[in-house]
Amino acid sequence: MAVRFDDDQKRLVLGVRDLIEAGPRAGDLQLRPTWTLQTRAAAGREVHRVTQAWRAEHDASYAAEVPVKAMRVVRGWECTIRGRLDGLTVEAGRLVIEEIKSTAMSAERLYTTQASDWPAWSHQVALYLWLLHAMGKPAQGRLVLVSLVDGARHVVSVHGDLERLEAQVAQRLEDLVLEREDHLAWLAQRRGAQVPFPHDAPRPGQPEVVGLVHDALDAGQQLLLSAPTGTGKTAAVLHAALGHAWGSDRRVFFATAKGTQAAIVEQTLAAFAERGVPLRVVSLRARKRLCLRTEGVDCRAEVCEFAADYHDKVREHRVVDRALEQVCDAQALKDLGRTHQVCPHALAMETARRCDVVVGDYNYAFDPDVRLGLFDDGPWVVIVDEAHNLVGRARDYGSGTLSARQSEAVADHLRGLGDDFEPWAQLCDAAGELVRDAAMRVEPEAPRRGSEAVVDPPRGRLRDLRDRVEELALEYALAGGGGADDPYTAWSWGLLRFGQRLDAAGEETVHIYSEDRGSGPALRMACLDPSAAMGPLLDRFRAAVLMSATLRPAEYHRDLLGLAADRLRVHEAPSPFPPENREVVLATRVSTAWRDRSAHRDKTAGLVQKLMDAVPGNVAVYYSSFDFMASLIALLDPEGRDVLVQERGMDDTARQALVDALCAPGAPRVLHAVTGGILAEGVDWPGGVLQAVIVVGPALPGVSLERGLHQQWCEDRYGRGFEYAYWVPGLSRVVQAAGRVIRSPDERGVVVLVGRRFGWRHPQSLLPVDWTPRKALEPQEQVQAFFEG
Fold first, then answer.
1. How far apart are CA 556 and CA 714, in angstroms?
2. Which of 292, 294, 534, 619 is the most exposed place for a label (fewest CB within 10 A)?
3. pTM
4. Interatomic CA distance for residues 476 and 360, integer angstroms
5. Are residues 371 and 328 in the same domain?
6. Domain membership of residue 663 as a residue range
7. Is residue 191 situated within a structural domain?
8. Residue 467 maps to which CATH number?
9. CA angle, 348 then 234 then 765, to 5°
10. Alpha carbon distances (Å) from 150 to 77, 102, 692
């Protein structure tokens, strides 16, 4: 049961579990698993059924699934607490309640436990005792613990301090009511507020986007919005979204693909707040990016001072209220965390429950492993930034990998901890064997490429292994294992997730066995089409705006994201920039295709050199891969330019240092980077920093068995195999990279697309409609003429 409010009648209904989980808690921060253990839940239900049947057979007074409820009035609200007892019986004239729980403990360990070893379950029983007492039916309580390993049954008595529980329930109900009253008062304040544009004057084209988005949101539509980079999509879409939400009591989730995009959104929301818009915002980041521990992420209260007494400190210092007073970005969360000695990541999640706008990675909205439960509470609008990335990310959500080498490395780690961890090391060994044995399941006629082949996975063995990992999870914690960076914890989470996705996979998913020299044997599942999973997720939002510099063709996103045809609206905003300020040049006399790169390497480098020399200011050269970039840089002469090069795995600090260097005054610079990377998308360069962008090659995805299967699926299902598998993702990266030049109507710049395939008709049809590309025999002369004109 979820907490339910009837605001008109001032009524609140909640269940016992809601009473435990809702509202501010006490004590330390305790992390919960991020996956749903479906097999454990099924086993638990079976334990309940069997135990209840056995009790009813041997006790004539026993009743199962007995409803109970109590009512309290708090601040004029009628609060009803409901529960359902697993069992109720009468012994010696006194009522006895039973709560049945399943556990992975074997009899030997189970029989040594007492009520204090099961605090959450004991607290639940105590609350049932309070409920019966409130109904005028005093009772005794006990936990019935049943082992999933060997069927052992252990019964422990539970006693409740009824006076303390009465005060605790009253406090919890008051917390919920106060929070609800605050929410209602805040909504009333929002409804009466104007939402002005966040800047002194809108850019050309922004008012049209605002009106379009507002109409789409009011109609509950799913809008695919293409608008050129630099046109101010973020401000325009947020202005419409806030106006819609403020007038309809809705909330907004702004989904980003990269942290750099989140920063831009935060700045825009701060501008709204500065203009007096009543606004509660929190920006979610990954746990490791917010962690304040210098020794690394470990969220156990016994080792982390920010987890110890977390709930008490948050409550005492009203930290959530302080977070709501500002646009709470990552730095603000860290500052609050340091000041009050609380975990910034947990604070962000708690604050999100009360925010108008939540900014976060795609994962929080669409990844089944981490999707936020708050989306089930009331109507939301979702804005997806750089939405050309969403199909690829959605495919990842339905994919996964089991690595034999990783499993064996974790086994070695566990054995290094001592003999006590041998049972879990053996589980890792079993996983490694399962992966290696998959090679024998490859059929002779199975599709294959190189060391990869399609295989029917060993589902039975994997299910048994997953069940065993679940059974020993609690034992591992009791043996002293755990921690956020613990290798076995990460490994077991991955295996359980792999198993769950395997159970849910349909014909859109293929399984591939590979044996690469570098990474060793692996079993991979690959989602070829995420539409079956993504369509229902997007449908749950009241409305959606998917925006990017290019979402062409719209059918690609409609098909592979499962967008609802009756709700879909497509719009390509025209460029507000003077067309004469941008030159798009096609340099097609060299080939950048993989098979031709070696033969054309010198000619390609020579062409790029001439193009760089023709640009008087800063120029960015984007390549389809790091290896391709390195092979050409070695042949280039910077000719008096400072050279900046993107490196693999650059963190935020290194990226920002490179951006600052590019923007600093001084001699002209050349930036070498890769398409699809952190310097090609989601980066707002200051105006006029770049005079030219040179894109070397169309950035098509690499050829692989999986990509070929994806192509075949898209051909069979949609009749557009090569287009969906290669051209659309490749050219989306090209357009994003090209968008780093021309950020305002006053700027002038050149985009040069290098490679024979850019001259083909079909890829040109996927470029933005406002581009007028021209082929040139001597493209450097065309570039030079543009800047001299």
1. 10
2. 294
3. 0.89
4. 32
5. no
6. 579-788
7. no
8. 1.10.275
9. 125
10. 48, 11, 70
